[in-house]
Amino acid sequence: MLDISTLLSGLQSARVVDLSQTLEEHIPHFPTHSKFFHNLWGSYWHGDRALTYQLVMNEHNGTHVDAPAHFISDRNASAHVTIERVPVARLLGRGLRLDCRGLKEGDYVSRSHIEQWEAEHLAIAAGDIVLFNFGWSEHWGLRPQNRRYASDWPGVSREAAEYLVAKSVAALGVDTLSPDPPAALASQPIHPLVLERQVLIVENLTRLDELPDSFLFMAFPLKIQGGSGSPIRAVAFF
To answer: Is the whole-model pTM more than 0.85?
Structure first.
C-alpha cells in the first residue's frame, strides 16, 4: 500500500515550480493553429448569479502535450494514439533539465551534447521526461510582442531524438513552440520519429532555468475524445 502521509508530507515540503505559460488572448501560437479566445459568457456585473467564460482554443495552445496522433496517421493504427488513450501517468516521473541556453536561433541540440550532459550529471533512464532549456521562454509575449518567440527558435536534432527514443524516455519537452525549428518542420521534423515510438512531446514550457538537474515532473492532459493533444499544467517538485 502507498504511504499517503509520507508522500503528501514530501510533496508539501518540496519547492514547486509552475512550468506552464498563462493562457490568455494574444499569446504566441503556431501559424497553422487557431488562436485562444476567452469570452465572457455570464457575469454578476450583468445581472447573472455567477461569473463564467467560454474557452475557444486549439489543443496545442499554450503549454501542451502532443499525442502520437498529432503526426501519426490512422493508417498506422497501433501508433495512432489519441490523447484520451495516453496513460494518465505518462507525464508523471523523473524530470531532467538539460541546459541548452548556449544555442542560437535555428541551432540544434546534438547527441554529443546529451551524452556530455550525462557524463557530467546523471544517465538518462527509461521513463524519464527530458526537458531542454533553450532560454527561449524569455521571448514569450502577447501580440505584437509574440513575433520573436514564434520565429527561428532552436530545437532538437534528429540524432538526439533517435538517442532519446532508444533510451525509452517517456517524453521530451521544450520552452519553444516545437522541438523542430522552422527549417526542420519544412524538411525532416523529429515529430513523426518520436511520436511513432509513443514518446510524448511537451511544448511551450517556462521557468526551466529555475530547475535542478533532476526533479519530480507532473502534468496531466485533458481527456479529449480523439484529441491530437491537450493543454497541461506542468509542475516540477524538488
So the answer is: yes
